[in-house]
Amino acid sequence: MDIDLLKTFLTVARLKSFTLAAKELQLTQPALSKRIKRLEALVDSQLFDRVGNHVIVTEAGQLLQQQAPQIISDIEDTVQNIRDLSGQVSGELHIGTSHYIGLHLLPEYLEQYVDTFEQVDVNVEFIDSELAYDRVLSGDLELALLTFPQQKDPRLEHQLIWREKLAIVCHQDYNLASEVEPLSHLKNYPCILPPAHTFPRELFELQLEQAGIELGKVKTANYLEVIAKLVACKMGWTLLPTRLLTAPLINLSPEGFLSDRDMGIIYRNNKTLSNASMELLKLLKGAGGNSESL
């Protein structure tokens, strides 16, 4: 079976829209509809009900939605395993990474990897840590680099690569900075944090709770770099990795006040990694040259 048909089906099922799926897959809507019709002909069942602008997965579609990820994974694994028998490092390498890791930590290793393994077609997808986590669990991604969650799924290996120091920061001229004991007044000033139910947000809230800090008004913004810019505009205070601590931002927390943030690479523990993935893992595990890396 053509796995592109299955991937197209899963995208439509996830988005519940042919229009949105065509946009995400960069296909015309007629081309996407043709793929779905071909798949329906292969399984001899209707996979979607179209009710106006809504798409509803049929009972047959629900069964396929449950089993298609494993089918895709099995086919891709078989093809890659055959390629790996030669011992060559080749084929496709599709990894997910959080925006922060992709911007600040991964590039130097990625450049080295691409220069060393020219036969590998590398595809890097920038996605939120929690989504990357789910996609590795589902088999949609072989590897992902992200902030580790507080509760680690036992089905995944968690290879610690980077450990970063965190700081409570604000603008040097923000009113909070002039308080005699700024940390005891944090609840009186707005805090800017990542969106709720994200791994960084859960980590930051836990850090503050363990430090005995009560939050007042909380604002949210995507990406730590954006949060740093907002704090630099005197819109509140936040937690940031110390590598983002540049003027006019200042550190309000003493050394050791907060625990470190753990980041690294995850993959399924019941799945043999491809040669291409193994080489990337080896490269990243040698990332101990940085002052805040393991």
How would you describe the overall organization of this protein?
The protein is α/β, with parallel strands linked by helices. The chain has three domains: 85 residues, Winged helix-like DNA-binding domain superfamily/Winged helix DNA-binding domain (Arc Repressor Mutant, subunit A), CATH 1.10.10; 113 residues, D-Maltodextrin-Binding Protein, domain 2 (3-Layer(aba) Sandwich); 94 residues, D-Maltodextrin-Binding Protein, domain 2 (3-Layer(aba) Sandwich), CATH 3.40.190. Helices cover 41% and strands 21% of the residues. The chain is built from ten helices and twelve strands. It has a five-stranded mixed sheet with strand order 4-3-5-12-6, with helices on both faces. A three-stranded antiparallel sheet has the order 10-7-11, with helices on one face. α8 links the parallel β8 and β9. α2 packs across α3. It is globular and about 75 Å long. 28% of the residues are buried.
